[in-house]
Amino acid sequence: MVKKILSFVGGMGREITGLHEAAYLLAGSAMASLLFALIRDRLLAHSLGASTMLDVYFAAFRVPDFIFVMVASLVSTSILVPFLIESKEKGVDELKVSIQSLFSAFSILIIVVCGIAYFLMPWLLHALFPNLFILGFGDTLISTSRILLLSPVLLGVASFFASITQIQNRFLVYALSYPLYNIGIIFGIIFFLPSWGIGGLAFGVILGALFLSLTQIPLVIKDGLFPRFSFCFDWGKIKRVAKLSIPRTVTLSSQQITNLGLISFASFLGAGSISIFNLAQNLQSVPLSIIGASYSSAIFPILARFSVQKDREGFLSRMIAAGKHVIFWSIPITVLFIVLRAQIVRVVLGSGQFSWSDTKLTAAALALFVVSSVGQGLILLFVRSFYAEGKTAKPLFINIISTVVTVLMGFGLIKLYYSAPDFAYFVQSLLKTSGANDSSVLMLPLAFTLGTFLNLYLHWRSFAGEFPSFTAPVMKTAFHSISASIIGGYASYLSLNIFDDIFGLTTLFGVFMQGLCAGIVGIAVILIVLKVLKSPELKDIHEAFAKKVWGVDKASLDKLPS
Predict the structure, then answer these.
(1) Separation between Cα atoms, residue 549 and residue 236, nearest integer Å
(2) Percent of the chain at pLDDT above 70?
(3) What residue spans define the domains of the chain?
(4) What DSSP designation does 436 have?
(5) CA 452 to chain centroid
(6) DSSP code, position 326
(7) Of 281, 306, 352, 369, most Cβ neighbours within 10 A?
(8) Using CA atoms, how far apart are residues 445 and 74, in angstroms rounded to an integer?
(9) Number of Cα atoms under 13 Å in the Cβ half of residue 521
(10) What is the three-class DSSP state of 227?
């Protein structure tokens, strides 16, 4: 029995060395995780709607999520992978010492911080969401947030173990573990929510985090790298990692501060505004998770090795390849999401307590959010490239600037919306939210998107300053992708009326089929245009797919008629 388990673990831990193979594997995992995330959000929308109670649930995440970013990110893959790779090259014993010392220090730190937050929770939440306390939901918010404090501990452990598996290029177990997080939450919605209310949802989150951390353990044990807790610290290693990770932690926390500020503003708007903001942001994360996050995760160990080896040419070539493919995939998906936003929201969220007004506002927020998905994917790529080189200061300052500007824009746009009726009417007409509840919540995703593009501009300019030859080939791909996406998106938009007549919009099946068929039309047109433009990325994908699925090599493909 033990041999069978170890054999299975060995298969799960096979080494993956190719960039695109690793990226596609992680993208597949992201798609599976996102599928369960969509089921999770549909169940939440069906059970609670865009209500104050769902607002409380999303608000309860703010402090635990901030702790996760501030503390658990100290042992994130982007920090630990280069450090562990360097330790591994010095020998297995050196690697084990590094893992044990860092794990012990992290365990103490995260437990102490969460313990302090437990006692300070009432004060923290009252400062962030005073309106929820005025409405009488303060006690529920506090108790739910306290339960969720277990999540940064478990997720931090999972992140630590993920770093160990990634230095072995074993992405499979890492990829398969992340869907389990949302499965745990779904379990909580179905079985815990009816009996325990919002607190039951929090226990579902903890269950998912527990699944995530436990899946990594067998492979780490098999490699003989499972850390033992010890008070004997190697302070030199800890200080070195802290020196690298603190700027990164502040960088990541700036994104949390952005969301924290915008969600705090949302709590003062209409009931359900926090829910609409979060549900739309979750939907727009689909292209980001599948493409941007997958490529940035897959390329990071590769970039770290090139940086250690001082191979700038190899470093740049991988960045160009990843940047081109992030743009190639992201722009078409973004355009189709904008065109089909109403169908997406109705299919994913439109049931039970989720009203038509909620649907219109969430669809409009999704359109504003998803415009930034290309920028978010490229930002992840640039940030990982800086971390691979040990340059943590650049993304730190860039993200601080972007955070301040985004939060100020959110406040300013809300003020503008209420003080300028013509502007409010323009927003409602453009995004088709007339007749819905207060549309002022749309100012928050608009501020988020504008801040993202500022962030992208600053990151791109900084990277291109060091690697001037990066921009030209990437922009050529962007031209192809934008041209094809605009034409394909327009074809998809025109076909909506045709499929409306065929399927109707009175049932979930009809809405789903209308969106699916219109999306297929758009994708087909995009592929045709890319073929006409002789897109190199389309050819690369075709060759890679043919080789993986049918075993056809490039020489055989070259003999086929075009």
Answers:
(1) 48
(2) 85
(3) 2-466, 469-552
(4) S
(5) 14
(6) H
(7) 369
(8) 29
(9) 20
(10) coil
Instruction: Report in angstroms the alpha-carbon separations of 263 from 8, 128, 257, 392.
Output: 44, 9, 10, 27
**Residue 107 to residues 41, 99, 152, 323, Cα–Cα distance (Å):** 32, 12, 11, 36
Would you say 499 and 517 are in contact if contact means Cβ atoms under 8 Å apart? yes
* DSSP string for residues in 20-78: HHHHHHHHHHHHHHHHHHHHHHHHHHHHH-SSHHHHHHHHTTHHHHHHHHHTGGGG-HH
pLDDT tens digits, one per residue of 23-76:
566 666 667 777 888 899 999 999 999 899 999 999 999 999 888 887 776 666
561 — pLDDT class (breaks 50, 70, 90): very low
Handedness of CA 46, 47, 53, 55 (dihedral sign): negative
Nearest CA-CA partner of 386 in 330, 453, 309, 303: 303
Residue pair 202/60 in contact by the 8 Å Cβ criterion:
yes
Q: Residue 315: which of 204, 419, 463 has the closest Cα?
A: 463
- Tens digits of per-residue pLDDT, 486-538? 999 999 999 998 988 888 777 888 999 999 999 999 999 999 998 888 888 77
Cβ–Cβ < 8 Å for 547, 553: yes
Alpha-carbon dihedral angle through residues 318, 320, 325, 326, given to the nearest 10 degrees: 100
Whole-angstrom Cα distance, residue 68 to residue 17?
Answer: 30
Token pair of 535, please?
Answer: 């897109």
Say whether 552 sits in a helix, a strand or coil: coil
Kindly give, in sequence order, each residue whose CB lies less than 8 Å from that of residue 138, ignoring residues fewer than 6 positions away: 122, 125, 126, 132
Closest by CA to 346, choosing from 328, 332, 363, is 363
| Cβ atoms 320, 16 nearer than 8 A | no
* Nearest residue to 53 (alpha-carbon basis) of 122, 112, 140, 183: 140
Closest CA to 185 of 310, 361, 61: 61
> Are 356 and 269 in contact, with CB atoms under 8 Å apart?
no
Please report where in the chains the tokens 């969430």 appear, as a residue.
362
Q: Which tokens is 279 given?
A: 């549900």
**Amino acid letter for position 91:** G
